[in-house]
# Entry
Amino acid sequence: MTAAPFFEASGLCKSFFGVQVLHGMGFTLRPGQVLGLVGENGSGKSTTMNILGGVLPMDAGRMTLDGADYHPRGPREAEARGIAFIHQELNLFRNLSVAENLFITGFPKRIKGLPFIDRGRVAARTQELLKAVDLDIAPNTPVSRLSQGERQLVEIAKALGANARIMIFDEPTTSLTTRETDRLFDIIGRLQRQGIAIIYISHILGDVMRLCDDIVVLRDGHKVGQAARADMTIEKMITLMVGRTIDQMFPPREPPVTLGAPVLEVRGLNQRGMVKDIGFTLRAGEVLGISGLMGAGRSELARILFGMDPHESGDIRIGGTQVRELSPAACMDHGMAFLTEDRRAEGLMMEASIADNIALASLPKFGRSWAGFIERTRLGDEVQRISGAVRINARDIQRTLVKNLSGGNQQKAVIGKWLLHEPRVFILDEPTRGIDVGAKYEVYKIINQLAADGAGVLFISSEIEELTGMCDRIMVMAQGEIRAEFPRAGFDREAILRAAMWHGMKETA
Amino acid sequence: MSSTQSITPGSAAEATRPQRSFAVRLLMSEYLVLVLTAIYFLVMWALVPSIATADTLLDILAAMMPLLVVAIGQTFVLIVAGIDLAAPSILAAASVAGASMMTGEGGFALFTGVPIGVGILAFVGVGLLIGLLNGVCVTRLGMPPFIVTLTTMMFFSGFALFYTSALTDDGSSFGDLPSAFVAIGQGTWHGVPYSLALAGAVMLVAHLTLSRTVFGSWLYAIGRNPRAAAISGVPVRRAVLWAFVISGLCGGIASIIYTGRLETGTPVLGQRILLDIVGSAVIGGVSLFGGKGRVTWTLYGVLFLSVVDKGLQLLGLDLASVFAIKGLVILSAAVLDAVRHRLTLRG
Amino acid sequence: MSAVSAGGGNRSTTLFVLRNAPVLLFIVLLACFGLMSDRFLTVTNFVNIVIQAAHIGIIAIGMTFVLLIGGIDLSIGANMYIVAAVLGLFLKDLPLAISFPLVTLIGLAFGAVNAWFITRLRVAAFITTLSTLFIGRGIALYFSGNKMVGFSPEVLALGRASYFGVPSAIWGFAIVFIAAYVTLSQTTFGRQIYAVGADPDAAGKAGIDVRRIVFSVYCIAGVCAAIGGLISLSQVAVASSTFGFQKEFPVIAATVLGGTSLFGGRGGVLGTVFGAVLIQTVENGLVMTNADPYLYPLVISIIIFIAVFIDSSRNSILERLERRQIRVERV
# Structure
């Protein structure tokens, strides 16, 4: 089973603008091996993979494939040598069909020498590849109709079609449902048996432990540890990643002895095809978790509550007053804030400074006179205070653009934007997605502080550990309904999962 | 947690900034267009010394005012990632509607005794109405700005022609405008043209609105990320609507100055300046993709185009050469901007 | 909004109407003009409409390629004029079999210049083609001396000729359309155009040569502008100094009317042909019904407006109706 390594990288170095970001990284791959790559954001994982995938040239180091030198000059050469990159943001074209996506770089021709596409062969070959990843859809299905998980399988099929021998997965499960994740892991197992080597990058350390044969840990561009799965634990990985021991994943949370007044009351909320009969009460000082699988209606509920999507019936009270016409502005007037799951598309102005982003939701508060002249000094001071409070790591918040920040700092900027607005109800949809362990811990601390200051927090997450670590109470959603509710004393991972999979029991059992 | 701060082009750029050469810093400066204008001016001075006389300079200033006003309106729309192709038709429609109120050949408002007042209201009103129509179509009906304003441009240009043909004897223009009105475009006060004062006021108000008010910040936010803006409580639709209304209003005001200068209300007013309007804003550095732009930048762009035009005119070149050189100049400015953009990326 | 709450049967009717809205609008227009003029609904007249629509249609086909990658070409009118000026001033004595390909090459070169600035120097397409619009027309005006340009009698004869009973303009239109249609739907190049239009970054990462695609697309627009210009001048026999002036507007209108998005990745040349013919039909109908010529632009812009309005509201309603639902409601 343990074949000899066919790929070897050693001494990889890379600098940007005179700053070295990768210091002598190296590893080997055997056929059928799954290599886990973990590290905080900015630790050099992406740089390593971009060098491997031909996106970036290396400054120093050596890579060999089958004993021959491997120095890709571009993604095409990497692909030709059998290295495929399954990107975090899937690179499929929504306006084309599945088959067209698989062959976009070179369709089989009907007649050699003429440019006409042989649609028949395209369809047949697509069928074959889709079968290899267990995807039962027609080759001419438009990609826009596929779910995230299905799109990922199409990407894998594409890599198979290119005869990939090394497949790189970058955070593949962040937007998958539990069932889709299981399916992905099955497929990865199958690829492994076919002798394909896999590099698996993820922040979800449990998945890494479950899937990988060997694990490499990176910190600040250095390889700080490598071990077989048997010799590795999650705690050890975290210690290596952050360079210090983290005693706890979560800051201590002391549930309030007495809860405050209700800050958000929802009764009989309905929207056809989305949510049904939602009712709950969130009190001041409480952190209420919403668990459930992807597509259970959690984000949809949040969007309705914040007035972004319509609802047909229901009674919603924010801070005791009934709000009839829901809109983001109306909800904000009543002290509500909403951190969406997609911070790039909905949370931030990537091309604007940190300060501009933090100020965005609170501008009217700083407007003076009928013309709304902004009190710039006061705004500047407040933004500076907030940025310090959420500990954004940047030299000059007035000039640093948000797009140049790490995921964790970006998320802190979004949180800062809402803190400046001083919310009494804060809906957080996947606040720690795609950010590293250290930043997660800081986000948790901010949430605790918010609750301690008397705000009600609605915490939506796919990670059950996170919810059990942070919440006073957890509601479980499935199929757009609330299926179960657990008080802190009764938190039980198994029971929560069971409630979430209420519908899908038969298939997953 | 310093390790979470990723190494980025931005932060590295900050570190290396002081080492940059003067040439690179000049290229990166927001005053680049101004510098180019100055260089062009100096070259022209050597070729045609008369460009540096007070008369010519004042002439350039007076001639650029209406373009400046309408380009400022365009800047508002460009900042929210829209475009207002209807601007020339606003100029034309306002011109004929306003002029028809006060022409000595039987203006509709002569009986009121204050035809100029009604006329000016008509200019502004037509501008506001067309702007409002554009804004409603974009924000309420969800149609793309490019196509909405392309069709309103066709419609109101056609309307201006139709209106003029139906109401005038020669079918081409409304002449015989009151001298007090003509003075807005041509008159001076102690040597300062009224039009300069009017455009200056528009510029000041526009500049303060964009740079100092909540509304201005909202416009930039919408241009940068409309979804994030909406979720942050920005009244996106209302603000975009206002951007188009402001563009229409500026068109109306610009039309007053143009019509006064020409002494006639004509449906072909502004027929060929659409590309000058958008071009001057873009040359000044306003982004066609939204979120980036300043009134002062638009001013630089307008100044640049106006000086280029005047220089070519003074050289006594024919229409063909003026066209070709103007195109070359715009293209060179754009190439410089592209080089500059790449330098930013490289840090 | 009401469509969502409508029942099942109602809903499919709504969907049908929405999906076929432009065609229905076309039929309504035909009926209106047909009732107002008995000369309108005749084969001869329809052939006339297509002949008159040919030059805009061909240029709009080129524009479709450009819009599909999310670009724009404002310089096509100048390109047309250069082609006319060169043909009339310098190549008058050459046989058409030589002069036409030569000026088409000039159109190609013009497109290549645009493409070079856009792909190599990364100047925005809008501003590049805005500049070349001025430069191109300026250079051509310099040669023509701002005067009318005449052509050899063969040019006019070609414009009036028919082959196998089909007028030359329609041949030209049909050949360009079929070539464009096959290219877009049946070749790797064509499918890559859609990919680049949907997401240029992803296309680059997938290994598509984005620059080559963008470059080719502007060249195609240049060639189409030249061919469209030739067909137009074969119909009018002389070119004034405003030949092709501001043609970019009706061309873009026809393309967008045909359902091609200004943001890239969506649309096709079949719709463009339809858009060009629709605009010409309206103009022709107005002539047939003896409408005041000053009203033409008003009516045409209203029709375009309605068509685009239907298209955009259709898209938003369709999106809402086809939205993924997370609950299966059992009634």
Q: What stands out?
A: Chain B has a mean pLDDT of 87. Chain B touches chain C through 47 residues (CB under 8 Å). Strands of chain B lie at 188-189, 192-193. The two ends of chain B are 25 Å apart (CA to CA).
